[in-house]
Amino acid sequence: MSVFLDNAATSFPKPDAVYQAMDAAMRDVGVAPGRGGYRQSLAAARIVFEARSALARFFGVPDSSRLIFTHSATESINIAVFGLLKPGDHVVSTCVEHNALARPLHLAKKRGVDVTFVPSDSCGIVSERDIARAMRPDTRLVALAHCSNVTGAVQPIAEIAEVARIGGALFLVDAAQSAGFFPIDVESIGIDLLAAPGHKGLYGPPGTGILAVGAGINLEPLQVGGTGGSASTPEPPEQMPERLESGTINTPAIAGLKAGVEFIEATGLEVIRAKESVLVGQLLEGLHGMPGVRLYGPLQGERGAAISFNAEGHDPASLGFLLDSTYDISVRVGLHCAPDVHRSIGSYPEGTVRVSPGFFNSETDIDYFLRALREIIS
Ligand SMILES: Cc1ncc(COP(=O)(O)O)c(C=O)c1O
């Protein structure tokens, strides 16, 4: 029996429709979208257009041209941070960010942007009151992850959006662990910049991501180059999405991402979340009762699907190795690209073992994992 429990890194397997859509896009279309007026190129452009529309609909983005395709949530965050911020700007973020946001902010700091990192409680949850206290007249951006990839902690983003709005700042949300798990409507929550990977909860292939850019926000492109149309000027075009999408786009991957989002819509986000929540509950209950096991993050209430733990007398790396080599169970160990979270919850520097079930796991998978862990640590 082989069990994949690292869906917080990348969801696996994907719905069948994702493999089929990618294969068809590669074989039947397989050319650059928007780079030619012939039918095959138009067919590629149609796939990208339909994918953009599907993702815009999914996240409540009113103008789909303001949703751009990227290679990852990391790239989306970099485009938002460096496309927006100037020396002298102030940013409010938190002490529990993934490096995908923490490192761009540290680099921006070196370039003259001031950043305040607001601490969390011991579960990894940040209070909107602390965010409000950190706001200043020169705060240009409030930026944080909706849900933690280490603890599963969920931040009160609607309340924080209101704090940012009152303070006259833009709100950037890293939805890497929440897109495809929690409903996200950028307009009703008040999110100005939404960064999400395509390859986790949206079931697209690795190497996909999106950034939704609110109306009236003009980001400087991180890279410039060919955009298909508007070729005569030395400057990149003003219009979206071309302004932020230079270079030939990965049509087969985007076809897969479109099929992933359509799978969520056809299945129902609430059905997906309900199933994953059952598996999370089963894991929390099983781990909670195990002697010597310490769980991190919220044990009840609203949480994401990433669960971190340590077992007394076993370092995370050897536990992960034994689970893989003896039981064929894939989990992630260590810092999970988020060292600041471990400093906040008390698991630095060794990190944790992280289990993250997905929609295609079963209760039998979780039973098997819990049995394997019990055998290893007993
Ligand atoms: C909270 C969080 N932010 C950002 C990322 C980066 O996502 P990507 O690999 O698509 O760049 C991850 C990936 O694990 C994540 O968990």
From TrEMBL:
It catalyses: (sulfur carrier)-H + L-cysteine = (sulfur carrier)-SH + L-alanine. CDD domains: SufS_like. This is cysteine desulfurase. Its EC number is 2.8.1.7. Belongs to the class-V pyridoxal-phosphate-dependent aminotransferase family. Csd subfamily. It is an enzyme of class 2 (transferase). Its cofactor is pyridoxal 5'-phosphate. Residues 3-369 form the Aminotransferase class V domain. Residues 224-244 are annotated as: Disordered.
